[in-house]
Amino acid sequence: QVGIKTDMCRRTQAHALLRGIFARVSSHQAADLVVQLSPAPKSKPAEVDFGSVFTDHMLTVEWSLTEGWQAPLIRPFGNLSLHPACSSLHYGIQLFEGLKVYRGDDGRLRLFRPTLNMKRMASSAKRACLPAFDQSELLECIRRLVEIEQDWVPHSNSASLYIRPTFIGTEPSLGVKKPARALLYVILCQAGSYFDTKNEAVSLWADPKYTRAWKGGSGDCKMGGNYGCSLFAQYEAEDYGCQQVLWLYGDDQQITEAGTMNIFLHWINEDGEEELATPPLDGIILPGVTRQSILDITREWNEFLVSERYLTMAQLCSALRQQRVREMFGSGTAAMICPIGHIFYQGEITSRLAKELTDIQVGARTHARTQKTEVNDVSR
After folding, report:
1. Element (H or E) spanning 328, and its range?
2. Quick one: 69 and 206 in the same domain?
3. pLDDT given at position 19
4. Residue 230 within any structural domain of the chain
5. In this structure, are 310 and 184 located in the same domain?
6. 142/206 same-domain check
7. 139: nearest Cα among 105, 94, 184, 103
8. Phi/psi zone of residue 49: left (φ > 0), alpha (ψ -120 to 50 degrees), beta?
9. Three-state SS at 193
10. Residue 12 has what pLDDT?
11. Which domain holds residue 114?
């Protein structure tokens, strides 16, 4: 976990740290962090939809090939001004991240494993041919922004403040090439429930005709193109009465992700072992922070086998027929832990999965392990 410093002395220390922002990756010495506070703070709604209400301020840092990183700026939230030939608009040279800040029972604010987000963002930037940045210094900038916006962090265990770092190429000319200009910015919004299912299990539509990512591609990077191209399949899923897509890959129909989430299967495997399995990070799967946290926690439990392994639809269907499936769920920063109830596949819904999960949850059926465990309060 990373705590948020709130006293004036620590703010001064953080301010001093930011004087060298990004200097270690650029010969250009950046100036001090500049803070421009909003003259008219907005009222804070009690409850909002995910991603619809933003805080009063944002962080922006510009970069150019000739001058390197410029001074970071915290300014009132507002629109960006982009050239019509901006490379992020024409060629998709952009990426983003997503992390949350929580308010604890002690009133302190905590970021959940933010260094993993910085590491993933740096990896995505390299793949997008965007300039390198100092991960620790960017995190300090984010901490300072959260300090300013701390009143926006909900006093609730079920809500948080969502942080969206974004990195775009702003090259003002046409042509597929490395951008000579870029903009890194961070916006914040209140975050309640990501899905509108009121904690009910989501339904998935599985059809191998659509592929989210492929070997050698950018499926393991958090780029907007990976999400925009999924919309067509998602709306087809809704035509079948499902909320998300269960993404399959290859002739053997490997299970990869569920909508925008990593996926987990808790089952009795082919060898008769109790196992929690999730697909491996082979370049197709996004290395989710919540995914890694679930793996870390369950391995510490040492109560069942925890594996990163390939799973296919044939294996899942066989396990359902033999009643070996205990639970299936998705994970992600926005959704946290999301149970899966139905999978529409080859013309029919695997309602047995939903019934079995419901029976376990309400006690109509017992298993050796029926413990429900939350992971969103574990800080690392």
Report:
1. strand 325-332
2. no
3. 39
4. yes
5. no
6. no
7. 184
8. beta
9. coil
10. 41
11. 24-191
Asked whether residue 185 is assigned to any structural domain, the reply reads yes
Report the CATH number that the domain containing residue 174 is assigned in CATH. 3.30.470.10
Which stretches of the chain score pLDDT less than 50? 5-31, 369-380
Report the pLDDT value the prediction gives residue 363, as an integer from 0 to 100: 65
The answer to whether residues 72 and 29 touch, using CB atoms and an 8 Å cutoff, is: no
CATH value at residue 214 = 3.20.10.10
Q: How far, in Å, CA of 56 to CA of 77, rounded?
A: 5
By the 8 A CB rule, do 131 and 165 touch? no
What's the total number of domains in the chain? Answer: 2
- Same domain, yes or no, for 217 and 308? yes
Count of CB atoms situated within 10 Å of the CB of 205: 24
Contact 222, 97 (CB under 8 A): yes
Distance CA 161, CA 148 (A): 13
Residue 186, class by beta-carbon neighbours within 10 Å (0-12 exposed, 13-18 middle, 19+ buried)? buried
Q: Is residue 369 domain-resident? A: no
Kindly provide the b/e burial profile for residues 128-151, where b requires at least 16 CB atoms within 10 angstroms of the residue's own CB: bebbebbbebbbbbbbbbbbbbee
Burial of residue 210 (number of CB atoms within 10 Å: 0-12, 13-18, 19+): middle
Are the beta carbons of 62 and 81 closer than 8 angstroms?
no
